């Protein structure tokens, strides 16, 4: 089963004046998927985020320039967040990070939300499941500020590890607990 570690939902700005200033965090809402956002014109990848065509920054008002700076900061934050998931997830990560984009007042696309898909299936043995769940949890909590979805994935991984530990304990049993024979009241000590 493939689960997703979703981080930093897309920030939505109705106008440039609503963009966060001075690094403040915007109200977060779910944005469009990476497949739909910013790819309809086919030009999203032609220029890097924050690089405007020559003379474009001169045409922007001060308010629009502030909005661009806020979007640039958000883009860096989102990309760093997803990179932390990718590094910590290692071979459990399925594919690359996907991003949702927002076009800034300068006409450029900025990442405002992202997601990393990670394999959250159980291992073949309880031991493998415990090790895998620990890695999934570490990947979910890798960014400096895990999102709500990240916390939910980490909690699910902890539950999966606890269940595997219980299964492991049940299959191995307690070697110090005496085994009871079929006779009532008789105890057989295999370890004496």
Give structural notes.
The protein contains four helices and five strands; from the N terminus they run βααββααββ. It has 192 residues and is α+β, with helices and mostly antiparallel strands. It has a domain at 1-14 and 65-171. The strands form two sheets. The protein has a three-stranded antiparallel beta sheet with strand order 1-3-2. Helix 2 packs antiparallel against helix 3. The radius of gyration is 25 Å and the shape is rod-shaped.
Write the layout of secondary structure elements.
Elements: E1 2-7, H1 56-59, H2 62-89, E2 98-103, E3 109-119, H3 126-140, H4 148-172, E4 179-180, E5 187-188
Antiparallel strand pairs: 1-3, 2-3, 4-5
Keywords for this structure?
alpha+beta; disordered N terminus; two-stranded antiparallel ribbon; 192 residues
Provide a brief overview of the structure.
With 192 residues, the chain is an alpha+beta fold. The chain is 38% helix and 14% strand. It has a three-stranded antiparallel β-sheet. Strands 4-5 form a two-stranded antiparallel sheet.
């Amino acid at each position: 089963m493939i689960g997703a570690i979703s981080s930093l939902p897309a920030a939505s700005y109705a106008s440039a004046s609503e963009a966060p200033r001075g690094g403040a965090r915007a109200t977060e809402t779910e944005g469009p998927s990476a497949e739909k956002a910013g790819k309809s014109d086919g030009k999203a990848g032609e220029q890097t985020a924050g690089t405007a065509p020559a003379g474009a920054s001169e045409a922007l008002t001060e308010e629009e320039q502030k909005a661009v700076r806020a979007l640039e900061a958000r883009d860096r934050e989102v990309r760093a967040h997803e990179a932390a998931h990718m590094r910590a997830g290692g071979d459990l990560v399925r594919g690359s990070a996907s991003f949702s984009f927002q076009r800034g007042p300068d006409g450029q696309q900025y990442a405002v939300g992202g997601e990393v898909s990670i394999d959250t299936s159980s291992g073949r043995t309880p031991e493998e499941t415990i090790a895998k769940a620990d890695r999934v949890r570490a990947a979910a909590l890798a960014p400096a500020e895990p999102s709500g979805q990240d916390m939910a994935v980490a909690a699910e991984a902890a539950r999966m590890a606890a269940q595997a530990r219980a299964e492991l304990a049940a299959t191995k049993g307690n070697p110090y607990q005496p085994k009871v024979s079929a006779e009532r009241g008789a105890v057989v000590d295999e370890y004496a």
